[in-house]
């Protein structure tokens, strides 16, 4: 961990930058602009949805396991053109961000989230809660996720998980 | 059970065959209770998990047989035992953790405790306090044990039954099903992870869905959309004599003689890459379509069911035990246990993780199954005495080479009607 992370003003600035990134990320998904979703990731980013149960035990299976940005683009294409699911939308509520470290030029951050899912008939449910374990590359013009590990609190998924988290 | 009566339109099928299924079966409380009594707690074998989940003496796993909570535990002697997860005193759940290790099971409510065989070995204050109270003199601990399950194993897969008169497991399954289970469990197994998919429909709608090859290329458009259909594929459906168990499989054509090195699956990969080069729809990352012919028989897909609660899945190198757990008339949990083998090399281990993108609640070729049962369930209110139509491929429930058939769905109803006596 870089010493500067314990320096309060720097920390606050980094928290602000990560918070802003997560806000943009959630807005992209929640406003159904999924075509822009892969643009939040580096070319060789890992995007992995796991559960607390599997994560704690080192069980490697993913509910989604994407190894690069191309796989994220393929998922969007599949959602738009192939997969069949009822119209639905998400509302992400993201908690206060914690900076947990930095390594190899990447900032590690963690934030909790809730996703409320609204179906076309108006019914709403708390769909999932969990946390993002992110490694973020701030070296370029805009920050990008080099790794986004989505760890769900529960390992029950209601019906299906089509739209990404 | 005796209190509720089954709706006559449900009990009396419109004809004596298997081609018309009363919709009332999916939303009748009395049917649900009869299913618990005659199917799940009757002379059937229900999957409870994998042997490797409870490797050491005292290791236990809580799960469900039908909707009845049970615990699977490895005894001191190394054998597996199954018990109803309910204290014989006041009926509280005995084990609350999903997995654990215990020398004895002690109820949190009044500290009655049981050994791994379900024998009651301790009753708090049995002799009262200071000579006052306590259990009557004629109380016999041996009369208050936990209800036991019969347990049997096949290739590391653990089955349980509440019925002491259930036929031996391999007799119950038949030789074809046994061989196809062994095929995907040839070596010591390790679990790669779990998740549960909750479906808002009666459990039978999922049981039928996995026996239905008719819908596969129609509802699941992933392969069609990315033009990855393999028309050269062969396959078929095996239905056992009872009708309740089935295997649906497809295999690649033999490797072309002029390209002996070409592994099955490479043609998909090439096709995807070609399309990625032009501008039409294609996968940008064709690595998803890789795979290894790990069982050396060219079979790339095998969906196997054991009546009533097991689905054993091979989608290329993605291997899963799916356990069907009814949660009331219109709720069903599917517990997905992804597995590989202890001796998987790094590449094969990674193929399994990569190909898990095809399956599960977010799976490219399976997510629709999570919703389609609910589409039927939500449309039930107007059905009255009506029936669904299951006529594709004839009226029998025999094995067929064509996959344009509903023969294994009819097989399900054949076994169901026999055991339910309707």
What does this structure look like?
The complex is a heterodimer of chains A (165) and B (422). Chain A is an alpha+beta fold. Chain A has a single domain (3-152), classed as Nuclear Transport Factor 2, Chain: A (Roll). Chain A is built from three helices and eight strands; from the N terminus they run H-E-H-E-H-E-E-E-E-E-E. In chain A, strands 1, 2, 3, 4, 5, 6 and 7 form a seven-stranded mixed sheet that branches. The longest helix of chain A is centred in the first third of the chain and has 23 residues, at 8-30. Chain A is globular. Chain A starts with 7 loop residues before the first helix and ends in a 7-residue tail after the last strand. The model of chain A is unreliable at 1-5 (pLDDT under 50). Chain B is an alpha+beta fold. Chain B has two domains: 46-154, Rieske Iron-sulfur Protein (3-layer Sandwich); 187-420, Alpha-Beta Complex (Naphthalene 1,2-dioxygenase Alpha Subunit, Chain A, domain 1). Helices cover 22% and strands 26% of the residues of chain B. Chain B has helices spanning 8-11, 29-40, 169-173, 175-183, 203-209, 216-219, 222-225, 266-277, 346-355, 369-378, 407-420, and strands spanning 20-22, 46-50, 59-65, 68-74, 80-84, 99-101, 105-106, 113-114, 120-122, 148-154, 157-161, 189-199, 234-239, 246-251, 299-306, 310-315, 318-326, 332-341, 387-389. In chain B, the strands form four sheets. A seven-stranded antiparallel sheet of chain B has the order 2-11-10-5-4-3-6. The longest helix of chain B is centred in the C-terminal third of the chain and has 14 residues, at 407-420. Chain B is globular and about 80 Å long. Classes of the chains: A alpha+beta (165), B alpha+beta (422). The interface between A and B is large, with 35 and 38 residues.
């Amino acid at each position: 961990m870089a010493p500067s992370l314990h320096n309060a003003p720097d920390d606050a600035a980094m928290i602000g930058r990560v918070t802003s990134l997560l806000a943009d990320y959630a807005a992209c998904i929640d406003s159904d602009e999924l075509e822009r979703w892969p643009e939040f990731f580096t070319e060789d980013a890992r995007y992995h949805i796991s559960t607390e149960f599997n994560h704690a035990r080192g069980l490697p299976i993913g509910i989604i396991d994407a190894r690069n940005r191309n796989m994220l683009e393929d998922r969007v294409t599949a959602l738009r053109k192939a997969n069949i699911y009822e119209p639905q939308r998400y509302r992400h509520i993201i908690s206060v961000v914690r900076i947990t470290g930095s390594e190899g030029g990447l900032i590690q951050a963690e934030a909790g989230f809730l996703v409320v899912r609204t179906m076309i008939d108006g019914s709403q449910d708390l769909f999932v809660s969990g946390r993002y374990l992110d490694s973020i590359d701030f070296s370029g013009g805009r920050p990008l996720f080099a790794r986004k590990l989505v760890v769900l609190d529960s390992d029950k998924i209601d019906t299906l998980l089509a739209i990404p988290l | 059970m005796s209190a509720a009566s089954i709706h006559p339109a449900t009990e009396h099928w419109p004809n004596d065959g298997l081609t018309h299924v009363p919709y009332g079966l999916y939303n009748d409380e009395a049917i649900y209770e009869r299913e618990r009594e005659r199917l799940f707690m009757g002379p059937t074998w229900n999957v409870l998990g994998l042997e490797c989940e409870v490797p050491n003496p005292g290791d236990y796993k809580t799960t469900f047989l039908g909707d009845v909570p049970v615990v699977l535990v490895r005894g001191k002697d190394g054998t597996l035992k199954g018990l109803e997860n309910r204290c014989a005193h006041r009926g509280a759940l005995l084990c609350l953790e999903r997995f654990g290790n215990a020398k004895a099971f002690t109820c949190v409510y009044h500290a009655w405790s049981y050994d791994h065989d379900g024998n009651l070995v301790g009753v708090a204050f049995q002799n009262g306090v200071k000579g006052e109270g306590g259990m009557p003199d004629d109380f016999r601990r041996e009369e208050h044990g936990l209800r036991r399950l019969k347990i049997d194993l096949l290739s590391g897969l653990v089955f349980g039954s509440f019925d002491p008169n259930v036929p031996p497991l391999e007799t119950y399954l038949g030789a074809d099903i046994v061989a196809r289970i062994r095929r995907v469990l040839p070596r010591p197994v390790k679990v790669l992870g779990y998740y549960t998919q909750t479906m808002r429909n009666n459990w039978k709608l999922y049981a039928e869905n996995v026996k239905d090859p008719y819908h596969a290329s129609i509802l699941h458009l992933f392969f069609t959309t990315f033009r990855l259909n393999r028309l050269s594929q062969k396959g078929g459906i095996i239905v056992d004599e009872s009708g309740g168990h089935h295997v649906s499989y497809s295999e690649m054509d033999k490797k072309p003689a002029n390209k002996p090195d070409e592994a099955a699956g490479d043609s998909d990969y090439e096709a995807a890459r070609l399309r990625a080069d032009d501008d039409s729809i294609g996968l940008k990352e064709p690595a998803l379509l890789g795979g290894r012919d790990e069982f050396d028989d060219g079979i790339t897909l095998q969906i196997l069911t054991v009546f009533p609660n097991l689905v054993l899945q091979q989608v290329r190198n993605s291997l899963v035990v799916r356990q069907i757990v009814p949660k009331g008339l219109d709720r069903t949990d599917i517990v997905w246990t992804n597995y590989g083998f202890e001796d998987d090399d790094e590449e094969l281990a990674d193929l399994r993780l990569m190909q898990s993108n095809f399956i599960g609640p977010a799976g490219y070729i399976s997510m629709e199954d999570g919703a389609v049962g609910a589409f039927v369930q939500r449309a039930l209110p107007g059905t009255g005495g009506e029936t669904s139509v299951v006529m594709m491929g004839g009226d029998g429930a025999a094995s067929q080479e064509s996959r344009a058939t509903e023969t294994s769905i009819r097989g399900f109803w054949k076994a169901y009607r026999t055991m339910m006596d309707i």
